[in-house]
Amino acid sequence: MSVTLHTSAGNLKIEVFCESVSKTAENFLALCASGAYDGSPFHRSIPSFMIQSGSPASAGPKVSTSIWGSDFEDEIRPTLRHNARGIVSMANKGPGTNGSQFFICYAAAPHLDGKNTVFGRVIGGMDTLDVLEAKEVDKKGRPKDKMTIESVTMHANPLAV
């Protein structure tokens, strides 16, 4: 399964690892399908590390709510690693605190292996990731100009256009 995040900087197509991390995939895809991510800001961007989003547009950047209304457990898989640019992973506040927030790696981040659930990878739109990474941020990694997920398109076939 794949989705395209239509962002204010361009499109990011993400392959979702449904079979490997089924609960995380179910949560992410249901949030995508429900429009929960439409208008969601990219509220943190740290060049050479990652960009984070996933708070509902109507909420603040600290809100991260799963489809079940509460946090859910990690699905750490030794074969799914933060080993490349474009890896998509759940943002959390510690073990078992997954909600709606996620991040996309700008570079390998092996220190996150075993701590955050990897659930996808960017398969199209690396140029958009370049644009997002180049945006100016403040000392806390907050983008100076608003960057958002405008809408999401769902694809049954990860290779579909």
Protein described:
The protein is α+β, with helices and mostly antiparallel strands and 161 residues long. It is built from two helices and nine strands, in the order E-E-H-E-E-E-E-E-E-H-E. The chain has a nine-stranded antiparallel beta sheet. A hairpin with a 2-residue loop joins strand 1 and strand 2 (10-16). The longest helix has 13 residues, at 22-34. The model has no long low-confidence stretch (mean pLDDT 93).
End-to-end distance = 12 Å
The number of distinct helices, counting runs of at least 4 residues, comes to: 2
Mean residue pLDDT: 93
Q: What structural class do the secondary elements suggest? A: alpha+beta
In total, the number of strands is: 9
Largest sheet: 9 strands, antiparallel
Residue windows where pLDDT falls under 50 for at least 5 positions: none
The helix/strand series, from N terminus to C terminus, equals: EEHEEEEEEHE
Radius of gyration: 14 Å
**Proportion of residues in β-strands:** 25-35%
Q: Helix coverage percent of residues?
A: 10-25%
- The largest beta-sheet arranges its strands as 3-9-1-2-8-6-7-5-4
Overall shape = globular
